[in-house]
# Entry
Amino acid sequence: MRNWLADALTAGNPAARGRRSDYDLNREAKLQEQAGMPVRDAAVLVPVVNHPGEPTILLTKRTDHLTKHAGQVSFPGGKVDEADEDAVAAALREAHEEVGLGANHIEVCGFLDTYRTGTGFEIVPVVGLVTPGFELTLQESEVQAAFEVPLSFLLDRSNHQLESAMWKGIERHYYAMPYGDYFIWGATAAMLVNLCDVMEAVREDVG
# Structure
C-alpha cells in the first residue's frame, strides 16, 4: 500500500504538484471574489488508514455551533501557524489537536494538488498512511465525530456527484459524496476526486 501511494503522489515540495480550486467548477465567480481577497496558508491531513482488509479514509464532522463550516465533513487540518516548519508539520499538528492522532502512527507519502477555496485558503493536502491501532481523542469544541470511509467507495466514480446551489445570487457547483449519514462535499470532496485522479493515473501507467 505504501509503495502504491508513494508512486501516485509527488514527494518533496508540494509546489511540484498542480493547483485546483473551488473556481474550477465556478469560473464565473472567480474574478469577482478573488479581487482583494487575502490568501491564507492552510494544510490538511488526508489519512489513509492501512487496514489489512481494506484501506479507509479518516474524516471528521465539525460541530454544529462553529461560526465557519459548522457541521461540515472535513479532513483534520487548519491554518499554517508561524511556529509550523511547513505544511506537513501543520497537518500533523492539527490531526493531533483535533482527533488525537499521533505522528508516530503516520507515514507521510506525498501531496495532492494545492487547493484554493472560495474563502481564500490555500490548502496543501498532505497524504499520510496511518497504521491501525490508534485511539482517537476528539477536540469536542471543534469536532463532533470522526469516522472512516472505505477507500474503494471514494475511488468509485459512480459515487462522485455534481451538485449545485444558489449562493450570493450565483449558481454554485460542487462535488458531493454522500456516505450513510454523512454528506461529504465541497473542498473535501474535490480533494478526494483529486486523490482518485492520481491513483487512476498510476494504474493506467502500470497497466
Observations:
- The mean pLDDT is 86.
- The helical segments are 2-8, 30-34, 87-99, 151-154, 186-206.
- The chain has one domain: 2-150.
- The CA atoms of residues 61 and 145 lie 5 Å apart.
